[in-house]
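Notes from the 1:1 (GR / supervisor)

We went over the backlog. Supervisor wanted to see one worked example end to end before approving the batch request, so GR pasted a single chain during the call. The sequence is below; no edits were made to it. Supervisor asked that the structure be written out right there so they could see what the output format looks like.
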Amino acid sequence: MSDFDPILAPIIVLVLWTFFVQGWMAITRLPAMNKAKLNPQKAERTADLGGLLPKQVQWKADNYNHLMEQPTIFYATALAWALIGTGGGINLTLAWVYVGVRVVHSLVHATINKVMLRFSLFAISSVALLVMAINAALVVL
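Structure output shown during the call:
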């Protein structure tokens, strides 16, 4: 493992977490669709399911979608650090903060969905990511 930049670890953890959320979404959404006797064609667009399934079921799908949005910036930034070859130190700490807070954000979003708590977690993760990106810009620009 010492041959790899340490910042690759939080990248892989977030990828695995995203697959976990995808599975969680599937194991809650499919039974809910069966219970509601929804024809799969009614799920042609994810947005169509929003009003047809219980909100607690839809929260998992909403969170999965969130994991396809801002984390793409995280992946790009962390991979830039890995390519530079200096993905340790403060940037590694920020990467782990980002991933840890995003996991907590997912748990809040998919279970109790308290919007202000979710927003606070999103803001914390965004600041960690922004600092990582600024640090990278200072090196490469």
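Supervisor's comment: Residues 11 and 75 are 6 Å apart (CA to CA).
Batch request approved.
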